[in-house]
Design a protein that fits this description.
The complex is a heterotetramer, with two copies of chain A (322 residues) and two copies of chain B (342 residues). Chain A is an alpha/beta fold and 322 residues long. Chain A is built from twelve helices and 14 strands. Chain A is globular. The chains are: A alpha/beta (322), B alpha/beta (342). Chains in contact: A-B, A-C, A-D, B-C, B-D, C-D. The complex binds thiamine diphosphate (2 copies) and magnesium ion (2 copies). One thiamine diphosphate sits between chains B (71, 119-121, 149-152, 179, 181-183, 252) and C (29, 53, 55, 81, 84).
């Protein structure tokens, strides 16, 4: 175990797989521009390349390389930059295996940061995970700890399908314990970050920490919150969530996106169908307010869900129902 | 760089493939009236582009790859795909090359090097470059053929990909089949170069690669130009852009009708939209298939009788393909749930 | 009132506004290529233009023209084609008013067909409405009748914000009564297409008809279904839905998209929060199966929600709960 | 087409605007240390591009419009925006030109013709073309200035827009500020033309419009080249592409740090990444601001004393701007909910 920043843990996952498999490529903008770049030095320019600002071509090239037998990892920095290439992400990469009747595999990883609520204003701060979550053929990963960042990245690279790896930008410099040596975290297995019997919270990314903070506050009031981090939202480990709700009878979903663009809402709808009989109270959502993210610090803080709003939702859900 | 010109045998092979593509497309088209309703959605034919397809792919070697668009029936035929499996796919049957999941727009045959097609204009261009990166890493001199239309050169994907392919010296040959139309829009209406009377190959200037315009109705001319590009790519010298001028002899695609109304092929848009019947008829007079046949017969490479025999052989082959496809069962319903993930 | 095909009703809405306001533009691919084109002939090339296959530029140009005082309507044919320009749709058009502190307006309409389950296979058949629904600043319209097609298009053109106008491709040739003369349908007002006391169904686009078909079948069994068509999903008329659920106690949401990419799921989650106390049974979803749309006719029919599956869901929801 | 060269008065005005931009940017930069934490996110400076900005906008008339990118502090200053409101915006205050909602990357001042900026590379290029369409319809000879970086010419949006602008003869001047870098990538590493030693203006060939490369550190040279393009556009003859070669004198942007860690400006990437200190120092020696001042003094257009007075005046103006911004209150929290819809 080593203490590593989240961002280094992601790199460790990429290294682990690049060392193991010569078919893994790593490329994107503003990396590998000198010979002493860490990845260039170790793997060479056949496998590590800088690209122009051309996301459509970058992701499209990854698709073609994947169909031809390679395993590309594309560095995209910010999830928004995928929007200029959204066709490649949702209407090309995940379609080919199906449309060809299984003749091709498209193993690739799109590494993208999101949710950078640190003064990056309206166009760089989005929480876009829900856009990808429902696309058949695509897998979507949202690590919230450094250890998972490494292990989920490695699993993503080994997966034979296109994977969107969404890492929260405000977590990148947070440190955490990361297993040395080969580390893989399976897809479709949620992590229960805190156990509790009164209310279930489901959250991803940065919101996991806020949910845990809220849970600590609430514990002092005698409210025991169970915090579930799905880790991958496609595939989604609904069983773990339903098991928890069966125990608590109450669900709060926390999501950094505006209300109608959340992973949390999608999960709430699943529970409203498959876990309905467990529910003692409405499923509350804590989301960003329905605006573009503002620049000014107090306004940004007002818009993004904070611990106080999570605490409040849990208190409200405790008051309602039987 | 000098290139060997195709032998008589190779030229006969070229004609054979051109005839096969034409006959296949004719049979697809006839299917709309012979078996109304069996073909669904939107089907786009390669008639008129046979010489270009066959001339370009005459340089295809095992290990190479080709990618194209929704207008994709010609390439796999030239690469050796079984027309029975292709026709069955177009009819959505269990024996289809893509198990009925892809249909006319997405014929794919990886075993024969036809790696995939995108129905989104321009979107397949970077896929070809990606496959070329894989070829470059394998270092066996393999190349990738990337086919797309003139209209596709107005998508950002074209621009972004050609720049990268040039920078990385990827072994890819960009073959733009310029048929003068994007559905009902003429090149002059949508392309600044065309509007100025310039060839579209001039776009290569922005990507520092050879840009050549060729008569795509002449398979030997195409073979020569593409041959140079392929040699260049195999030698590690990078990509080329070939503008191959063709004329599509059918409408853009079959008509778009609501469910229940039988689909069919209307006349070419030059006639239906622009009232330029003479343009279309001139193209018909220059039809590359009979022209190449005539050339081979005239030059003595093929006797008239041998040519007729070829025609008959190809007609028989495609007849079998249609009958096979019509007789093939539909896939099991639950098979729709397979092949989502690998 | 005239009987018009849905597609002609949309055109009537565009004409109504183009005649009224010289600032309205109409452009896109493969239209206006001859001088006798209906719109060219009436409004001229200043206002009606054909574009190359360049969605990013087309939509971006609409944004710039809108900021400069015009009201562009962009013909995009199929919703998927917006994916190559998704940044312009979700991260440019709806952001500018906010980011500039209200200095600009961006009134434009993106007209796009969707859901063309008629053998168009994997890349042209998507039901992408949910991708747009949650973006603050954007409005999203989904007409299901010819009359609404006209009236919502006209309202969309008059609206001072970017509007995604999603018309279902399988409805385009269906005929319906369309009011002559000026016709406007307000945003944010759902239509109750059938009243009933036992179960509420919410559906949009083509699925409204299937829901009505299912309701007719169920009526014969004595089950009275209320069918609600939101007409605009942003803004969403949640009140009408909650009022209905307060009466019926049971909700089935029907959506042509795969489960985790639906408008229906988003609505279900809202009801699970704000209408929970009315619910007597789980909120059931009837969606497309979780695959890319297959080409082959029977497979496509198997994947898309049909009346039988809607009927089945309603029967199930009637059996469960109190 | 012959263009009148700027009068002495106009040249002094140009220098004044260049000094104002430089001083503003210096004050923004100093703010990171003088008032740590008041500027958030990512701020991109225009220092080094002053001559290009001022030379280009010297042709701006009322009714014209300009659009740019996240690197947007220079243009509104030159167009007459109050630096107090700009600085307040960069500090996220209630008196900010965008009410604190936009920040450094999205300074906008519609009243003065600065219509908007996009933080997404290349995305603003079609917006400018759209505004130019509006100008074309108004038929008053108004034009649109579209500013973007060299890196942006690798986005599909660039390609698609220039083609349409040419076809439609839109009155837009595409000014590419080529500073040789996209963050830490050099043009040679990402652009096929640059890699071949060609000017980026050559890309205009694909769009059949004039493509001119100009020394962007000389405001008079820029004014001349842009003047021709503006005249062309006002006359209805269509767009032009101007490649204006500049060097940014700061790093791409302030460092990206986690919340809590104070942001600041590192050295230019030529030094920190490529170890090419000499390249940077040569650029410093050619700094356009002192050079133009020297030129005006030398040619007698401005006395040394008058130039010093200008410096002092500008320093005082920007000092007031900083103090105003720091003293401006934060917006009311609920104001975050306004301006979502019109
Ligand atoms: C991004 C995108 N926009 C629009 C379409 C609709 N469309 C399908 S084919 C086509 C014409 C393409 O023209 P061209 O590239 O010249 O190919 P051709 O059909 O002439 O072979 C268009 C506009 C699409 N499939 N994808
Ligand atoms: C589509 C997109 N991809 C990536 C980025 C990240 N990014 C921001 S600025 C920049 C460099 C742009 O370089 P250039 O166009 O030369 O402008 P400069 O910053 O040099 O003025 C990049 C890559 C972005 N904002 N948008
Ligand atoms: Mg064409
Ligand atoms: Mg630059």
């Amino acid at each position: 175990m080593a203490q590593l920043p989240f961002i280094a843990a992601i790199d460790a996952g990429i290294h682990q797989e690049m060392r193991r498999d010569p078919n893994v490529l790593y490329f994107g903008q503003n990396l590998a521009t000198t010979e002493n770049h860490e990845f260039v030095a170790e793997y060479g320019h056949d496998r590590v390349r800088v690209t122009p600002i051309s996301e459509t071509a970058e992701i499209g090239i990854a698709i073609g390389a994947a169909m031809a037998g390679l395993r590309p990892v594309v560095e995209l920095y910010m999830a928004e930059f995928m929007l200029v290439a959204m066709d490649q992400v949702v209407n090309e990469a995940p379609r080919f295996r199906y449309m060809t009747g299984g003749q091709v595999k498209v193993p690739l990883v799109l590494k993208a940061g999101f949710g950078f609520a640190a003064g990056w204003a309206g166009q760089h701060t989005g929480s876009l995970t829900a856009l990808f979550m429902g696309v058949p053929g695509l897998k979507v990963v949202v690590p919230s700890t450094a250890a998972d960042a490494k292990g989920l990245m490695a699993t993503a690279i080994r997966d034979d399908n296109p994977v969107v790896f969404m890492h929260h930008y405000l977590l990148t410099l947070e440190h955490g314990e990361v297993p040395d040596g080969e580390h893989l975290v399976p897809f479709g297995v949620a992590a229960v970050r805190r156990t509790g019997s009164d209310v279930t919270i489901v959250a991803t990314g940065w919101m996991v920490n806020r949910a845990l903070g809220a849970a600590a506050t609430l514990a002092a009031e005698g409210i025991e919150v169970e915090v579930i981090d799905p880790r991958t939202v496609a595939p989604l480990d609904l069983d773990t969530i339903l098991t928890s709700v069966a125990k608590t009878g109450r669900l709060v979903v926390v999501d950094q996106a505006p209300r109608h663009a959340t992973v949390g809402g999608i999960i709430a709808a699943d529970v409203a169908e498959f876990g309905f009989s467990s529910l003692k109270a409405p499923i509350l959502q804590v989301n960003a307010r329905d605006v573009t993210v503002p620049y000014s610090e107090p306004l940004e803080a007002y818009v993004i869900p904070d611990e106080a709003r999570i605490v409040d939702a849990v208190r409200r859900v405790m008051q309602s129902g039987g | 760089m000098s290139l060997q010109s195709p032998s008589s045998e190779q030229q006969i092979e070229m004609l054979t493939q051109m005839l096969r593509i034409r006959e296949f497309e004719e049979r697809v088209k006839r299917t709309f009236t012979e078996y109304p309703g069996v073909i669904r959605g939107h089907t786009h034919l390669a008639d008129g582009a046979e010489a270009s397809i066959v001339g370009a792919l005459s340089h295809f070697k095992k290990g190479d790859a080709a990618l194209a668009t929704y207008r994709c029936h010609g390439y796999p035929l030239a690469l050796g795909t079984d027309p029975k499996a292709m026709m069955a796919e177009i009819l959505g049957r269990a024996d289809g090359i893509c198990k009925g999941l892809g249909g006319s727009m997405h014929l794919t045959d990886v075993a024969n090097g036809f790696l995939g097609t995108s129905g989104i204009v321009g979107a397949g261009i970077p896929h070809a470059a990606g496959a070329a990166w894989a070829a470059q890493i394998r270092k066996k001199g393999e190349v990738v053929f990337c086919f797309f239309g003139d209209g596709a050169s107005k998508q950002g994907a074209f621009h972004e990909t050609l720049n990268i392919a040039s920078l990385w010296k990827l072994p890819v040959i960009f073959v733009m089949e310029n048929n003068g139309y994007n559905v009902v829009t003429t090149s002059e209406q949508e392309d600044a170069n065309a509007a100025a009377g310039q060839p579209l190959a001039i776009k290569a200037t922005s990507y520092v690669m050879p840009g050549v315009t060729v008569d795509g109705t002449d398979p030997l001319a195409v073979a020569e130009v593409v041959g140079h590009a392929v040699a260049r790519a195999r030698a590690g010298e990078g990509p080329s852009l070939i503008e191959s001028k063709v004329y599509r002899l059918s409408a853009h695609g079959n008509i778009i009708a609501p469910p229940g109304v039988p689909l069919h092929y209307p006349e070419h848009e030059a006639i239906t939209v622009f009232g330029k019947r003479e343009e279309y008829e001139a193209a018909l007079r220059g039809d590359p298939v009979p022209r190449f046949r005539g050339k081979l017969v005239q030059s003595g490479i093929l006797s008239g009788a041998a040519a007729d025999a070829l025609n008959a052989q190809v007609a028989a082959e495609m007849d079998v393909a249609v009958k096979f496809a019509v007789a093939s069962p539909f896939p099991a319903l639950e098979s729709a749930l397979d092949n989502v993930y690998a």
